[in-house]
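To fix ideas, we reproduce below a protein record of this kind.
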Amino acid sequence: MKPEEILRVVDAIHRDKNIEKEIVFQAIESALVTALQRQYGEETSISITIGRTDGSLNGIRDGVVIDTQELSGRIGAQTAKQVIIQKIREAERDSLHDEYEEQVGQMISGLVTRYEGAAVTVAMGNTEAILPRSEQIPGETFHPNGRVRATIFEVRKVGSRVKIILSRIRPQLVQRLFEQEIPEIADGVIEIRAISREPGYRSKIAVLSSDPRIDCVGACVGVRGNRIKNIIDELGGERIDIVRWSDDLQVLVPNSLQPAEVDEVILCQMLGRGIVLVREDQLSLAIGRRGQNVRLASKLCGWDIEIMTREELDQQIERAVGGFSSIEGLEPALAERLVGEGFLSYDDLSVIEPEDLMEMGGLSREAVDAIVLVADQRSAQAEVVAADQRRRQRDQDRVEVVAPDEELSIETLTQQPADEKSDVLEGEVAELPESAAFEVSAEDSIPET
């Protein structure tokens, strides 16, 4: 290889592959060393350097300077070429990996090239990425040559290639869309403080304005909702709740539970839990469908949130005080103090920090361990009872939906011929999904003793 040819190759690779010249020089040097070692033996000590400005070759083999003609003429040209290509590919892979590794969490726009086997192949500039089914919004479909926006979720090296995984279910996608659609967020006037998301169904986003003259919620919604509509359309109709952020949990928790109206928030610092009291007519709205509203609000605030009415809280307090007081070594005064800190079930008491209970009640370590052990046992018993209640409720629900038009009951089932009962029980009942069952939490009650 002549010096001018080396410089020309380095410059071409640098421009075409976007690889630093120094990396290309090192790859060629390594390729020449490998080619010479194949000729003289792996044990041979060989060092090759290339002049960065003039492309001159200099080599040393076992302490002896290698003649330039030997470097240019005696090296196997095909071997050197193969090694150089391999090194360049590795350098290109590393460069591509580093480029996209820095963009993890950022949004990209690409062109769908293939949609096979539920995975989407997306062309993005100089490479391709994969959007697997697990990272797609439930129910969405794609078409070849269609545009798709997603965030870069993971970048990793796989052999001589770089595998780029995209995602459309991460909260970062919602954040990037807000930054793109709302200038105030891009300019830093409005800040996104927290996001919680259940992709394809609902998201909550908490925002805060640094300028008191700008309404952060109104700016995100836009005139007649035009700004938020663009984001909802991109997410396939996913519902988005925009709430005002506050460092005061007494304000943030009610905001996060919108559109439900909250009467009172009781913060239990030791458990990191907030008990939210609502009216009876607001209970289902605050909890949301299948608990979605309270679940997203909990993620947004970073606290566990329990929704209940004032009557339910009073009943739980009464049961908890009575249940705790029945534990040997736990005085009624300490039981009331524990309830005041938010411990409303045996399960709560079983996970209390022993040091905290020792400090609250002036108890010894042995007494605390005994109390926690009893609480753990009763918690397990309550879970067994709750599981049995769920099973019986499922059985009851299954019987009730077998033939609702005929009001079929257990009594009428027993009066049917054996073959007809078998058809009913093995047919329609067996296909009833378990989601129809009524769920009962073990934490909702404490058996009185």
Q: What stands out?
A: The first strand starts at residue 46 and ends at 50.
